[in-house]
Amino acid sequence: MLKKSYRRKKSLIAYSFILPNFIGYFILTFIPIILTFVMSLCEWNFGQTVNFVGFKNFIQMFTKDSQFSLVLINTIYYTVVTVPVTMLFSLLLAMLMNSNLKGRVFFRSVLFFPYVASLVAIAIVWMALFSPQSGPVNSVLRSIGIANPPRWAADKHWAMPTIIGLTVWKGVGYYMIVYLAALQGVPGELYEAARIDGASKFQQFTNITWPTVTPTTFFVVMMLTISTFKSYDIMYITTQGGPGTATKVLAYHIYNKAFKDNAFGYASALSIVLFLIVLAFTLLQFKVEKKFTNDL
After folding, report:
1. pTM (2 decimals)?
2. What is the pLDDT of residues 119-138, one digit of tens each?
3. What's the 3-state SS for the chain?
Protein backbone atom coordinates (compact mmCIF):
# COMPACT_ATOMS: atom_id res chain seq x y z
CA MET A 1 0.00 0.00 0.00
CA LEU A 2 2.80 2.38 0.91
CA LYS A 3 4.59 1.48 -2.36
CA LYS A 4 1.49 2.36 -4.41
CA SER A 5 1.09 5.65 -2.55
CA TYR A 6 4.76 6.48 -3.10
CA ARG A 7 4.53 5.66 -6.83
CA ARG A 8 1.35 7.73 -7.17
CA LYS A 9 3.08 10.65 -5.46
CA LYS A 10 6.09 10.38 -7.77
CA SER A 11 3.80 10.24 -10.80
CA LEU A 12 1.90 13.35 -9.67
CA ILE A 13 5.17 15.23 -9.17
CA ALA A 14 6.34 14.18 -12.65
CA TYR A 15 3.04 15.21 -14.23
CA SER A 16 3.15 18.56 -12.43
CA PHE A 17 6.44 19.34 -14.20
CA ILE A 18 5.12 18.57 -17.70
CA LEU A 19 1.60 19.91 -17.15
CA PRO A 20 2.49 23.59 -17.89
CA ASN A 21 3.99 22.52 -21.21
CA PHE A 22 0.86 20.55 -22.13
CA ILE A 23 -1.39 23.46 -21.14
CA GLY A 24 0.70 25.87 -23.23
CA TYR A 25 0.67 23.49 -26.20
CA PHE A 26 -3.10 22.98 -25.93
CA ILE A 27 -3.90 26.70 -25.72
CA LEU A 28 -1.27 28.13 -28.07
CA THR A 29 -0.93 25.33 -30.64
CA PHE A 30 -3.66 22.69 -30.61
CA ILE A 31 -6.66 25.04 -30.38
CA PRO A 32 -5.31 27.41 -33.12
CA ILE A 33 -4.76 24.39 -35.41
CA ILE A 34 -8.37 23.25 -34.94
CA LEU A 35 -9.62 26.81 -35.47
CA THR A 36 -7.54 27.06 -38.68
CA PHE A 37 -9.31 23.99 -40.07
CA VAL A 38 -12.68 25.48 -39.11
CA MET A 39 -11.84 28.94 -40.50
CA SER A 40 -10.70 27.44 -43.82
CA LEU A 41 -14.35 26.58 -44.44
CA CYS A 42 -15.53 30.07 -43.56
CA GLU A 43 -15.38 33.58 -44.95
CA TRP A 44 -14.28 36.16 -42.43
CA ASN A 45 -12.90 39.63 -42.86
CA PHE A 46 -11.83 41.19 -39.59
CA GLY A 47 -14.74 42.96 -37.91
CA GLN A 48 -17.43 41.16 -39.93
CA THR A 49 -19.60 38.14 -39.27
CA VAL A 50 -18.12 34.70 -39.84
CA ASN A 51 -19.94 32.99 -42.73
CA PHE A 52 -19.68 29.28 -43.49
CA VAL A 53 -18.85 28.83 -47.20
CA GLY A 54 -17.73 25.21 -47.37
CA PHE A 55 -14.96 24.58 -49.88
CA LYS A 56 -15.34 27.96 -51.59
CA ASN A 57 -11.91 29.14 -50.37
CA PHE A 58 -10.19 26.07 -51.79
CA ILE A 59 -12.01 26.41 -55.12
CA GLN A 60 -11.07 30.09 -55.27
CA MET A 61 -7.47 29.17 -54.55
CA PHE A 62 -7.14 26.98 -57.63
CA THR A 63 -9.40 28.96 -59.98
CA LYS A 64 -9.31 32.66 -59.13
CA ASP A 65 -6.08 33.31 -57.22
CA SER A 66 -3.62 34.12 -60.00
CA GLN A 67 -0.71 34.29 -57.57
CA PHE A 68 -1.22 30.90 -55.95
CA SER A 69 0.54 28.84 -58.64
CA LEU A 70 3.33 31.42 -58.80
CA VAL A 71 4.04 31.42 -55.06
CA LEU A 72 3.81 27.61 -54.99
CA ILE A 73 6.44 27.36 -57.74
CA ASN A 74 8.64 29.87 -55.90
CA THR A 75 8.29 27.85 -52.68
CA ILE A 76 9.23 24.58 -54.40
CA TYR A 77 12.18 26.27 -56.15
CA TYR A 78 13.36 27.74 -52.86
CA THR A 79 13.06 24.38 -51.09
CA VAL A 80 14.52 22.17 -53.83
CA VAL A 81 17.68 24.31 -54.05
CA THR A 82 18.12 25.24 -50.38
CA VAL A 83 17.78 21.74 -48.90
CA PRO A 84 20.52 19.87 -50.85
CA VAL A 85 22.92 22.85 -50.85
CA THR A 86 22.62 23.30 -47.08
CA MET A 87 22.94 19.56 -46.51
CA LEU A 88 26.03 19.29 -48.72
CA PHE A 89 27.86 22.23 -47.16
CA SER A 90 26.92 21.10 -43.65
CA LEU A 91 28.33 17.62 -44.23
CA LEU A 92 31.53 18.90 -45.85
CA LEU A 93 32.13 21.41 -43.07
CA ALA A 94 31.39 18.77 -40.41
CA MET A 95 33.94 16.43 -41.97
CA LEU A 96 36.46 19.28 -42.03
CA MET A 97 35.74 20.25 -38.43
CA ASN A 98 36.03 16.59 -37.40
CA SER A 99 39.58 16.38 -38.76
CA ASN A 100 42.76 17.50 -37.03
CA LEU A 101 42.38 21.05 -38.31
CA LYS A 102 44.31 23.67 -36.38
CA GLY A 103 41.95 26.11 -34.69
CA ARG A 104 38.89 23.98 -35.41
CA VAL A 105 37.14 25.08 -32.19
CA PHE A 106 37.37 28.70 -33.33
CA PHE A 107 36.10 27.85 -36.81
CA ARG A 108 33.19 25.85 -35.35
CA SER A 109 32.15 28.91 -33.34
CA VAL A 110 32.45 31.21 -36.36
CA LEU A 111 30.39 28.89 -38.56
CA PHE A 112 27.73 28.42 -35.87
CA PHE A 113 27.45 32.14 -35.09
CA PRO A 114 25.04 33.08 -37.95
CA TYR A 115 22.53 30.53 -36.66
CA VAL A 116 22.35 32.01 -33.15
CA ALA A 117 22.65 35.63 -34.28
CA SER A 118 19.62 37.82 -34.96
CA LEU A 119 18.11 37.16 -38.37
CA VAL A 120 17.68 40.90 -38.89
CA ALA A 121 21.40 41.53 -38.32
CA ILE A 122 22.42 38.61 -40.54
CA ALA A 123 20.06 39.75 -43.31
CA ILE A 124 21.38 43.33 -43.17
CA VAL A 125 24.98 42.11 -43.44
CA TRP A 126 24.13 39.77 -46.32
CA MET A 127 22.22 42.43 -48.27
CA ALA A 128 25.09 44.88 -47.70
CA LEU A 129 27.56 42.32 -49.09
CA PHE A 130 25.42 41.92 -52.20
CA SER A 131 24.46 45.56 -52.63
CA PRO A 132 24.37 46.26 -56.41
CA GLN A 133 26.18 49.58 -56.15
CA SER A 134 28.52 49.50 -53.16
CA GLY A 135 28.62 45.85 -52.08
CA PRO A 136 32.05 44.18 -51.83
CA VAL A 137 30.88 41.21 -53.94
CA ASN A 138 30.14 43.40 -56.96
CA SER A 139 33.30 45.44 -56.31
CA VAL A 140 35.35 42.24 -56.64
CA LEU A 141 33.45 41.25 -59.79
CA ARG A 142 34.13 44.66 -61.35
CA SER A 143 37.81 44.43 -60.44
CA ILE A 144 38.16 41.19 -62.41
CA GLY A 145 36.60 42.67 -65.53
CA ILE A 146 32.84 42.09 -65.15
CA ALA A 147 31.45 45.49 -66.14
CA ASN A 148 27.80 44.77 -65.32
CA PRO A 149 27.62 42.40 -62.34
CA PRO A 150 24.24 41.07 -61.18
CA ARG A 151 21.97 43.36 -59.20
CA TRP A 152 21.28 40.41 -56.88
CA ALA A 153 18.19 41.01 -54.71
CA ALA A 154 17.14 43.92 -56.94
CA ASP A 155 16.99 41.67 -60.02
CA LYS A 156 14.03 39.31 -60.45
CA HIS A 157 16.31 36.59 -61.87
CA TRP A 158 18.91 36.81 -59.09
CA ALA A 159 16.69 37.66 -56.10
CA MET A 160 15.79 34.08 -55.19
CA PRO A 161 19.40 32.77 -55.46
CA THR A 162 20.45 35.66 -53.20
CA ILE A 163 17.85 34.72 -50.60
CA ILE A 164 18.81 31.05 -50.90
CA GLY A 165 22.43 32.01 -50.21
CA LEU A 166 21.35 33.89 -47.08
CA THR A 167 19.27 30.91 -45.91
CA VAL A 168 22.19 28.52 -46.42
CA TRP A 169 24.59 30.84 -44.58
CA LYS A 170 22.13 31.20 -41.70
CA GLY A 171 21.43 27.48 -41.24
CA VAL A 172 24.58 25.66 -42.29
CA GLY A 173 26.25 26.05 -38.87
CA TYR A 174 23.45 24.31 -37.02
CA TYR A 175 23.29 21.33 -39.35
CA MET A 176 27.10 21.16 -39.34
CA ILE A 177 26.89 20.56 -35.58
CA VAL A 178 24.25 17.87 -36.13
CA TYR A 179 26.47 16.09 -38.66
CA LEU A 180 29.51 16.59 -36.43
CA ALA A 181 27.75 14.78 -33.58
CA ALA A 182 27.01 11.87 -35.94
CA LEU A 183 30.59 11.75 -37.25
CA GLN A 184 32.06 11.71 -33.77
CA GLY A 185 30.01 8.60 -33.06
CA VAL A 186 31.82 6.64 -35.78
CA PRO A 187 34.45 4.31 -34.21
CA GLY A 188 37.96 5.34 -35.27
CA GLU A 189 38.88 1.66 -35.61
CA LEU A 190 36.78 1.43 -38.77
CA TYR A 191 38.83 4.10 -40.53
CA GLU A 192 42.06 2.59 -39.24
CA ALA A 193 41.11 -0.85 -40.59
CA ALA A 194 40.10 0.72 -43.91
CA ARG A 195 43.45 2.50 -44.21
CA ILE A 196 45.30 -0.76 -43.47
CA ASP A 197 43.29 -2.44 -46.24
CA GLY A 198 44.36 0.33 -48.62
CA ALA A 199 40.99 2.10 -48.95
CA SER A 200 41.12 5.58 -50.44
CA LYS A 201 39.49 8.63 -48.81
CA PHE A 202 36.56 8.34 -51.21
CA GLN A 203 36.11 4.64 -50.42
CA GLN A 204 36.20 5.41 -46.70
CA PHE A 205 33.51 8.02 -47.22
CA THR A 206 31.20 5.81 -49.32
CA ASN A 207 31.62 2.68 -47.18
CA ILE A 208 31.95 4.08 -43.66
CA THR A 209 31.02 7.77 -43.34
CA TRP A 210 27.96 7.95 -45.57
CA PRO A 211 26.17 4.81 -44.27
CA THR A 212 26.82 6.00 -40.71
CA VAL A 213 25.39 9.50 -41.22
CA THR A 214 22.45 8.38 -43.39
CA PRO A 215 19.91 8.51 -40.50
CA THR A 216 21.20 11.98 -39.65
CA THR A 217 20.87 12.99 -43.30
CA PHE A 218 17.19 12.01 -43.33
CA PHE A 219 16.66 14.07 -40.18
CA VAL A 220 18.46 17.07 -41.72
CA VAL A 221 16.48 16.80 -44.97
CA MET A 222 13.18 16.56 -43.10
CA MET A 223 13.91 19.55 -40.85
CA LEU A 224 15.19 21.64 -43.75
CA THR A 225 12.16 20.79 -45.90
CA ILE A 226 9.74 21.80 -43.17
CA SER A 227 11.61 25.03 -42.36
CA THR A 228 11.96 26.13 -45.99
CA PHE A 229 8.33 25.44 -46.87
CA LYS A 230 7.14 27.60 -43.99
CA SER A 231 9.84 30.25 -44.40
CA TYR A 232 8.46 33.77 -44.31
CA ASP A 233 10.65 35.94 -42.10
CA ILE A 234 13.66 36.05 -44.44
CA MET A 235 11.54 37.29 -47.35
CA TYR A 236 9.77 39.81 -45.15
CA ILE A 237 13.01 41.29 -43.83
CA THR A 238 14.92 41.38 -47.14
CA THR A 239 12.78 41.73 -50.26
CA GLN A 240 9.14 41.91 -49.16
CA GLY A 241 8.48 39.23 -51.79
CA GLY A 242 10.00 41.32 -54.58
CA PRO A 243 11.17 42.46 -56.96
CA GLY A 244 7.69 41.94 -58.30
CA THR A 245 6.82 38.46 -57.08
CA ALA A 246 10.28 36.90 -57.57
CA THR A 247 10.70 35.89 -53.90
CA LYS A 248 7.07 35.68 -52.87
CA VAL A 249 6.56 32.26 -51.30
CA LEU A 250 3.45 30.53 -49.97
CA ALA A 251 3.97 31.48 -46.31
CA TYR A 252 4.42 35.15 -47.27
CA HIS A 253 1.28 34.97 -49.44
CA ILE A 254 -0.63 33.65 -46.42
CA TYR A 255 0.65 36.57 -44.34
CA ASN A 256 -0.49 39.09 -46.97
CA LYS A 257 -3.95 37.57 -47.26
CA ALA A 258 -4.44 37.43 -43.49
CA PHE A 259 -2.94 40.68 -42.23
CA LYS A 260 -3.06 42.96 -45.26
CA ASP A 261 -6.25 41.86 -47.03
CA ASN A 262 -7.95 40.72 -43.77
CA ALA A 263 -9.12 37.56 -45.56
CA PHE A 264 -8.62 35.27 -42.58
CA GLY A 265 -10.78 32.47 -43.94
CA TYR A 266 -8.93 32.33 -47.23
CA ALA A 267 -5.55 32.59 -45.46
CA SER A 268 -6.58 29.63 -43.28
CA ALA A 269 -7.36 27.61 -46.42
CA LEU A 270 -3.91 28.46 -47.79
CA SER A 271 -2.40 27.35 -44.47
CA ILE A 272 -4.18 24.00 -44.73
CA VAL A 273 -2.77 23.47 -48.23
CA LEU A 274 0.72 24.34 -46.95
CA PHE A 275 0.24 21.89 -44.07
CA LEU A 276 -0.84 19.10 -46.45
CA ILE A 277 2.15 19.72 -48.74
CA VAL A 278 4.61 19.57 -45.84
CA LEU A 279 2.85 16.49 -44.45
CA ALA A 280 3.08 14.73 -47.84
CA PHE A 281 6.80 15.49 -48.13
CA THR A 282 7.41 14.33 -44.55
CA LEU A 283 5.56 11.04 -45.03
CA LEU A 284 7.42 10.46 -48.30
CA GLN A 285 10.75 11.01 -46.53
CA PHE A 286 9.79 8.56 -43.78
CA LYS A 287 8.85 5.98 -46.42
CA VAL A 288 12.13 6.46 -48.30
CA GLU A 289 14.10 6.30 -45.04
CA LYS A 290 12.39 3.06 -44.03
CA LYS A 291 13.04 1.47 -47.42
CA PHE A 292 16.67 2.65 -47.42
CA THR A 293 17.23 1.38 -43.87
CA ASN A 294 15.78 -2.02 -44.75
CA ASP A 295 18.05 -2.23 -47.81
CA LEU A 296 21.07 -1.57 -45.61
Report:
1. 0.89
2. 999 999 999 999 998 899 99
3. CHHHHHHHHHHHHHHHHHHHHHHHHHHHHHHHHHHHHHHCCEECECCCCCEECCCHHHHHHHHCCCCHHHHHHHHHHHHHHHHHHHHHHHHHHHHHHCCCCCCHHHHHHHHHHHHHCCHHHHHHHHHHHCCCCCCHHHHHHHHCCCCCCCCHHHCCCCHHHHHHHHHHHHHHHHHHHHHHHHHCCCCHHHHHHHHHCCCCHHHHHHHHHHHHHHHHHHHHHHHHHHHHHCCCHHHHHHCCCCCCCCCCCHHHHHHHHHHHCCEHHHHHHHHHHHHHHHHHHHHHHHHHHHHHHHHC
